[in-house]
Design brief:
By secondary structure, this protein is mainly alpha-helical. Helix content is 86%, strand content 0%.
Length: 125
């Protein structure tokens, strides 16, 4: 896709961090249940953003971005749980949580902007 998307780039970098965390949880902690959850939700954020880029309509774009936001919120939950159960160190968890919260804020702003644009085009019709 042409053009630069900070949200796309940051969500991809976050997914890489989540995959590496997943490998750590499997190999060093022998944790598989929570690991599956964090891997699924943490990588879904960026995948949904990529899907939204080619949405069939502005409403479809908003829908996919909203699902991505839900996945980001869920990912934050799993990160907190992994930290509070000592599966990952607090420093690592807080770094990942900060990245996740940044994605949440960016997604909220993106969804708000898209909804505002949708309302403006509906008023013009």
């Amino acid at each position: 896709m042409e053009g630069k998307s900070i949200l796309r780039d940051k969500s991809y970098a976050f997914a890489i961090r989540v995959v590496k965390l997943s490998l750590h949880l499997q190999k060093n902690k022998k944790e598989f249940v929570l690991n599956k959850q964090i891997l699924r939700s943490g990588t879904a954020i960026g995948a949904l953003i990529r899907e939204a880029e080619f949405g069939q309509s502005r409403a479809d774009f908003i829908y996919k971005m909203t699902i991505s936001l839900k996945e980001a919120n869920e990912t934050e939950y799993w990160l907190l749980l992994l930290m509070d159960t000592d599966f990952i160190e607090e420093k690592l968890a807080k770094s990942l949580i900060a990245d996740c919260v940044e994605l949440i804020k960016m997604l909220i702003a993106t969804i708000k902007t898209a909804k505002d644009r949708l309302l403006k085009t509906e008023k013009v019709k």
